[in-house]
Amino acid sequence: MEQVEPRTSWTFVTHHARILAMILRDPEIRLRDLAAGCGLTERAAGAIVRDLESAGYLTRARRGRRNHYEVTPGTLFRHPAEGRHEVADLLHLLVDLGPRAGETGHPPGTGV
């Protein structure tokens, strides 16, 4: 059987979900670290944080020179198909799947 290359390079987890999971893992994470962890620019990561904040999925407070983020408990998925489920269930799975010390978090062979 011939192996077929994928049509596009897509992933199951969006940048929004990835950033929210990273914030849950480290509530004082820097924007540059969010961007690096998702392969985005800081500007794009900042826009996602603002999206999540304005939609009520997280809050942000300034503590000294750093932002402190808090993921809002009890928030539900936005799409009606999953709308009765809490986002926290997915986030806890993603946090558990996070890279361990010394790992990059990228699949082998991706060059990223």
Uncertain stretches: 101-112
Largest sheet: 2 strands, antiparallel
Alpha-beta content class: alpha+beta
- Beta strand count: 2
Mean pLDDT, to the nearest integer, reads: 84
What form results from the Cα inertia axes? globular
| Topology order in helix (H) and strand (E) letters | HHHEEH
How much of the sequence is in beta strands? 5-15%
Q: Give the spatial strand order of the biggest sheet.
A: 1-2
Instruction: Specify the helix fraction band.
Output: 25-40%
In DSSP terms, counting alpha (H) and pi (I) runs of 4 or more, how many helices?
4
| N- and C-termini, Cα separation | 29 Å
Supply Rg. 16 Å
Layout of strands and helices, then pairs:
Elements: H1 15-25, H2 31-38, H3 42-54, E1 58-63, E2 66-71, H4 87-96
Antiparallel strand pairs: 1-2
Task: Supply the key terms.
112 residues, alpha+beta, disordered C terminus, two-stranded antiparallel sheet
Describe the overall structure.
By secondary structure, the protein is of the alpha+beta class. The protein is built from four helices and two strands; from the N terminus they run αααββα. The protein has a two-stranded antiparallel ribbon. 16% of the residues are buried. Residues 101-112 have low confidence and may be disordered.
